[in-house]
Amino acid sequence: METQNVTIQVPVRNTQSPFSQMRGAHVAVRVPDYEASKKWYMEKLDFRLIHEWPFGDLQLAYLAPANDDNFWVELLAGGAPETKANYTDLNESLHPAGYHHFCIDVPSVDDTLRELNNRSVTVVGEPFNLPAIGKRLAFIADPWGNLIEFAERLA
Predict the structure, then answer these.
(1) Cα–Cα distance between 23 and 46 in angstroms, integer?
(2) Distance (Å, rounded) from C-alpha 146 to C-alpha 38?
(3) Torsion of CA 62, 59, 148, 23, to 10 degrees
(4) Which pTM value belongs to this model?
């Protein structure tokens, strides 16, 4: 694996903005089967169930990674969602407009994929280094075609 140090210039924080208190909280993922999707995220990714509730004809849940209380995935299930394409090629997935994926940082992309392969998770393409951002990346798909990126900081 090729490594290189990359410095990304992050602008100075704007503490004077009326939105300066905004923080990331969660991403919502639309799935057709509540129980199956909740089980998949909990068994395949070791997510924890934080809270669940009904909303109209939908069932919702907040799930969090095994050791992170700052980022949650919200499952939206029920009703009759439209079918989403299941991609086996990352480049193919980049063409449609709209939501594409969410990302989770990991210490090692390769170790993460090895464990996910043991858990029969669909890997979308091969892992790759992206020197422009100093990261090694890989993508998986849940059974309903929702993409998840794993990112490792390159040394």
Answers:
(1) 24
(2) 14
(3) -40
(4) 0.88
Rounded Cα–Cα distance for residues 48 and 74 (Å): 12
Burial-class residue 74 by CB neighbours within 10 Å (0-12, 13-18, 19+): middle
pLDDT tens profile 101-155: 999 999 999 999 999 999 999 999 899 999 999 999 999 999 988 999 999 999 8
Indicate whether 68 and 89 sit together in one domain. Answer: no
Contacts of residue 139, defined as CB under 8 A and 6 or more positions apart, other chains included, come to 90, 93, 101, 123, 124, 125, 147, 148, 149, 150
Are 121 and 44 spatial neighbours (Cβ–Cβ below 8 Å)?
yes
Question: Residue 124: how many CB atoms within 10 A of its CB?
Answer: 20
Domain that holds residue 75: 25-80
Per residue in 12-58, pLDDT tens? 999 999 999 888 899 999 999 999 999 999 999 999 999 999 999 99
Angstrom distances, CA of residue 134 to CA of 98, 100, 129, 131: 25, 21, 8, 5
Q: What is the CATH number of the domain that holds 38?
A: 3.10.180.10
